[in-house]
Amino acid sequence: MTIQTIVVPDLGGAETVEVIELGLSPGDSIEVEDSLLVLESDKATMDIPSPASGALVKYLVAEGATVKVGDPIAEIEVAGEAAVEAPEVEEVEQVAHEPVAEVAIETVPEPSPAGSTERTILVPDIGSDDKVELIEISVAVGDEVAEGDTLVVLESDKATMDVPSTHSGKVLKILAAEGDKLGTGDAVALFEVTAEAAPVAAPAVKSEPAATTAPAAPKAAAPATPVEPAADAIQSAPGQPAQPAAIAAVEPAALSDSAQVYAGPAVRLIARELGVALSEVPGSGPRGRILKDDVSNFVKQVMKNKAEPAVAVSGGSGIPAVPAIDFSQFGKIEELPMSKIQKLTAANMQRNWLNVPHVTQFDDADITELEAFRKGLKAEGEKRGIRVTPVAFLIKAIGAALEANPEFNRSLAADGQNLIQKHYCHVGMAVDTPRGLVVPVIRDVNEKGIWEISAEISLLAGKARDGKLKPAEMQGGCFTLSSLGAIGGNGFTPIVNAPEVGILGVSKSQMKPVWDGAEFVPRLLLPMALSYDHRAINGGDAGRFMTHLVKLLSDIRYLAL
Question: I need a labelling partner for 157 at 20 to 30 A (CA). Which of 140, 383, 499, 518 fits?
Answer without folding.
Answer: 140
